[in-house]
Write a structure and sequence with these properties.
Blueprint: H1 25-48, E1 52-54, H2 58-67, H3 72-85, H4 95-110, H5 123-160, H6 162-168, H7 173-193, E2 198-200
Parallel strand pairs: 1-2
The structure holds zinc ion.
Residues 3, 5-6, 8, 17, 19-20, 22 line the site of zinc ion.
Length: 201
Amino acid sequence: MKCNACGAPLEAGQEKCTYCGTLTPYGEEKFKQREAQKIEAERQQRLDNLPAMKFVPASATVLLYIFTGTFYSPYWYAVRMKSLNSLGTKAKLQAWAVGIFAVLMFATFMLPSYDLTASGISEELSENIYNTVLALLILVSGWLAYSVKNILQEHASQFIGKTNAVQSIANSNLMLILFGPAYLQLQVNKMIKMNMFAPKI
Ligand SMILES: [Zn+2]
């Protein structure tokens, strides 16, 4: 074997020519192997450092949503808040809004069973109170879902760029409004599969 660059004799297993420093074919092969190992190690480290989010199978998400009624929503926001807000995104989920959301949901649930007119409130006012609570509930609900959508998209854009993140993560506003956290959980599941989150069991 001779060096391809300077013609100096090479010994078997030599990675570089001792005279001119050119890599031997064996040296080039070794270099490629080490590069591949480095890339794999970096990939593994990135995966190890991923923030964790809870994975809930789609079927369980749907069942929870149906059987706990809409109460799954404030629960979901409350238990996911810490994980979501520790992602370091500019968008945040506001604790006070989650609190107001839970209160509004409870009020919407309880109000119809109370006869407000018995405490001297006119029927019209009583109806207005209910409608106002309901309107506020829908407003806060939409805002919370929108906040989480922004958090998820901002997090995803680190991996796939902003345009792709906006197009592929929680991209249906209709689903977001109709199913809120159930839809958002499915997005989290998807992001776990895309290696953007580590699954938290
Ligand atoms: Zn050489």
